[in-house]
Amino acid sequence: MPGKKNSNRFRQSNDTLAPPKLLAAARDSRLVIFAGAGISMAAPTNLPSWRDVNRIVVRSLAASAAAAVGEPLAAKAADLILARHEQEKLPPEYQAQVLAEFLHDRYFEVLRHLDSDRPNPTHLAIAWLARLGYVRAVITTNFDRVLEAAFAAVGTSLRRCFQPEDFRALASDLTRFDKKDGPCHLLKLHGSVDDPATLIDTLAQRKRGFAAPVLDCVRHLLRSYHWLFLGFSGLDLEAERNYLALEQEAERAVGFTWFVREKTEPKPAVVRLKNIYGERGSLVHGRLPEWLLDFADSLSGEPCAWIDKHTRNAPAVDDKANTVALEMAATKWAADLTPSVSALSLTFVVFACAEPQTAVQLAERVFQALEEKTKARVQPSSDFLLLKALSANTVALLLDGLGRHEEALHWFNAAVDFAETAHDDDTRDRIRGNLAHSLEMLGRIEEAQNAYQSALAGYRKRGEPAPLAFGLSGLAAHLIRQFRLDEAQVLAEEATQWATKAGDERFRGIALTHLGQIAKLKGDYPTALKLLTEVEELFRRLGNDEAVAAAAGNRGEVLAALGRFDEAERIQHAVLRVNERLDRRDNQAANFLSFGTLAELQGDLASAESWFNKAFEAFGALKNPLMEAFALYRLAGVTTKAGRFEDAIRLAETALPRVNGRNAVLTLDLWNEIGTASLKLGRIGRAEEAFRHVHTLTEANRASKPHAAGDDVAAVAPGSLLWIQYRSGKVHTLILTNGKIVVLGFTTSEMALRVLDLIVQRFPGDDLLIAQTEGSARATFEQGCVADGARAEDYWFVYEGTDEFAKIIASLEVQQPPPV
User: Which of 235, 312, 612, 815 is an S-S bond match for 596, by CB 3.0 to 4.6 Å?
Assistant: First the structure.
């Protein structure tokens, strides 16, 4: 230190110095220390890291679960989860959320054993800095009571604050922090092991944010004191950018110094925060406790001398004692949960890891174990029936995800019966929401809609944010598959709001996925890319490979539509590898559709046809008639482009029975393919019949928009030609007076739909033929769309944006004679 020599055995090994602003704040008694879990890992405290705590919990659950599902399967599940930990693909706070959602308060009981009464030199140095008046407050996310033990050891007063009423009292008089003769305040933001009800450990709890009194205290300290971050990686800032209002208060905050362990790099979020604070933010590197003791020594020689003597005289301790104590407590905790509950807990974590095959094995074994117990029970309790409902629902949900919808339906129905017998309406509604998807995939659309709506009505009645987000997302997804995009968007936006309020990142990610899909289908590619990229990052943080792959696949489709084919192909191959590993056959089939679309956009019709055929076969194996019909629709579009009009009609007609009454927009698309191909073959009567179906379905489904051929985005693709031909002999009284057939060139699908509505309103009795081709070049139209025997000069080409086009639209709007 400047001008001083220190012989203590904790001497810092490098020449890192404390920033001048940090020293000045301490000397002016304007320092706050933020202490993370890293300060409690050194000897003699030796508390495990958060990842180690989660590993202990997993191993304890597996040991208990072995009695219900067998040791090999329990061990396999534990190994799978722990491998995720090693890969840093399962954040501790997300695992905690998954377990707490099932176990509720019982989960937090295990955390009360994360404690020690043996402070290490870092704790003692913090206490000494407070004793000497340099530190006015300590903020910590730790549950343990080691800091309290340190303050007691150095003989300085401390006012703890971890109950809601504590923070309310402190926020009512913030001047208490500034009284130099008052005690140091310890703000335990995530609660204390004294009371498990105060503990904050899950991702959802963190995302919901802190109560107003807590934030009032934090803001006051930010604006009045320099903060020193110790043992805190900043991972919370990665998950929540404005954690503790650190970014929000940047302009008014005094500043901070962030300690980074030597030979490590600060988290990107920490670097970003430093850049926002500018000269008021600094990073220092070193080791604890050495760096902190050097800092304390630069202020006073007393702390280091006392700490050195105290640690030399302290009795020797077993470095693993606290970890062993936690392991023993966790083993008892898991045993008290019962083997079936422990096994189902493991199942939910494995499910969160997107490993459905192992998860379904676990859930089936749990249900079998419960069935065995049922035989010995005369009258099962409500809790027991609820456990059976949850296990059956889990099996069903996993089977549904694997595309085994008929099996899933059986399990869902059983789960609903168990939940109703247990008189648990919330669980029943959740299961109904899941059941609806299987019904939809099996083509039972009306039943599915009733189930979606019934579940959502139950959630609205109870008003709980997370279930509401779940129910809204389920119905939104259904409406997207029905191409009722505007309705779906309203629901998905509401789902996002409820998920945010609940702090549930998983449900927020699902809702954002739906919004990204809607933007993609509407052709709003910039918004789609932004949303889907955000979803990928969100689920990557949660360690959910399946959800990451789904978002990436959607993003790949957007890139393909934008002509970025190489990027799109790389993404789709990566997505397919994930779906093959997870044995998600439904997702693999969807991948085949994406590859087909990519090939079609590149003009490789043979490859596109091959991929669409693979998709058709895959959906057939999954007994999914709706998606079979969609694959056939894509095949019909490709064969039309290839000039094989007979094949296109045959494919579309094969698809119609699979989709009639189940999806009006897809039915409309198929009739449009039949009409277009019939026109190519000169079969005017068949074309008229097909286009009458198109017109009827369009009128009945105005909230939906039909697909453009070869383009899954809009009703009429921007830049396409739409030709409108009346066959009733009233051509002279329609739009033109020169006997020609009008061809309108649109740059936006919205204008195309508007013109169609105007024509139908003005000429409701005429028989109307409509066809479309991509690309606005007249030569393309003449080659592909003019019926045999007709001449291009018989058509009048009018393009959006021209004076003639404006005159036509104006005449339709005011019901006056058209321009000549």
Answer: 612
- In angstroms, the CA 366 to CA 371 distance is 9
Query: Residue 103's pLDDT is what?
Result: 94
Mean pLDDT of 245-273: 95
pLDDT band (50, 70, 90) for residue 27: very high
Distances (CA, A) of 554 to 543, 714, 727: 19, 16, 42
- φ/ψ of 39, rounded to 5, equals -75, -15
- Looking at residue 376, its amino acid is A
Tokens of 656: 């119609």
Closest by alpha carbon to 721, among 808, 645, 767, 784? 784
State the number of CA atoms in the 13 A half-sphere of 486 facing the CB. Answer: 6
Q: How high is the pLDDT of residue 753?
A: 64
What is the mean pLDDT of the segment spanning 393-410?
Answer: 88
SS (H, E, C) 5-26: CCCCCCCCCCCCCCCHHHHHHH
- How many other C-beta atoms lie within 10 A of the C-beta of residue 515? 23
Helix (H) or strand (E) holding 510: helix 505-521
Q: Is the pLDDT of residue 559 over 60?
A: yes
Please give the Cα distance from 98 to 77 (Å, whole number): 15
Taking the C-alpha atoms of residue 775 and residue 781, their distance in angstroms, rounded to an integer, is 8
C-alpha distances (whole Å) from 336 to each of 110, 112, 340, 593 are 11, 15, 11, 49
Determine which of 364-368, 520-524, 630-634 has the lowest per-residue pLDDT on average: 520-524
Average of pLDDT values for 727-731?
33
Closest by CA to 818, choosing from 737, 710, 708, is 737
**Is the bond preceding residue 72 a cis peptide, omega within 30 degrees?**
no
pLDDT averaged over the chain? Answer: 84
Burial category of 214 from C-beta neighbours within 10 Å (exposed 0-12, middle 13-18, buried 19 and up)? buried
pTM of the model: 0.72
Copy the structure tokens of residue 487. 């309705």
C-alpha distances out from residue 714 to 148, 384, 608, 644, 676, Å: 64, 50, 20, 24, 17
**Tokens 């019901």, residue?**
815
Give the β-pairing of 184-188 and 768-773.
unpaired
Nearest residue to 690 via CA among 771, 574, 777: 771
Side by side, the strands of the sheet bearing 184-188 are 158-161, 184-188, 135-140, 31-35, 226-230, 255-261, 281-286
* Residues in CB range of 242: below 8 A, 6 or more apart: 248
| Share above pLDDT 90 across residues of the chain, in percent, rounded to a whole number | 59
**Cα–Cα distance measured from residue 121 to residue 1, given in angstroms and rounded to the nearest whole number:** 18
Residue 504 binned pLDDT confidence (cut-offs 50, 70, 90): very high
CA R_g for the chain: 33
Quick check: 432 pLDDT over 70? yes
Question: In the predicted model, is pLDDT for residue 4 greater than 50?
Answer: no
C-alpha distances in Å from residue 57, one per residue of 102, 113, 194, 326: 14, 12, 20, 9
Q: What is the pLDDT of residue 699?
A: 61
The separation between CA 153 and the C-alpha centre of its own chain, rounded to angstroms, equals 46
Rounded CA separation 351/782 (Å): 55
Residue from 498, 479, 499, 481 nearest 489 by CA:
479
Q: In what order do the strands lie in the sheet with 795-799?
A: 768-773, 721-726, 741-745, 795-799
What three-state secondary structure class fits 447?
helix
Which three-class secondary structure state does DSSP give residue 431? helix
